[in-house]
Amino acid sequence: NTLTNNAAVARAVKNLILTNKGERPYQPMLGSDVTRQLFELNDRLVENNLQEAIELVIQNYEPRAELESVFVDANNDQHLVTVDITFRVVNQIDPITINVMLERIR
What we know:
Elements: H1 5-18, H2 34-37, H3 44-61, E1 65-75, E2 80-89, E3 95-103
Antiparallel strand pairs: 1-2, 2-3
């Protein structure tokens, strides 16, 4: 299926977040390394690092998205991190919010 407009940008943002640096050939700096940080101690510092990494990768590598907010919530009981990203596609009025759940997989 071919994605257009908002769905394509949302998919690109999600792919950027889930990509680790060095995974894509010939683009060693592309990615956020978010999944590597999931195995750190779960505290506010890690949440802040995840938020900054997500903001940085979207601002640097997705010119179609104007980032509005990133909210990171680490849930210790379920061993997952929920990330809510709100952005606006360039030349669009309505903001888009995507929810990404990051889990530790061994």
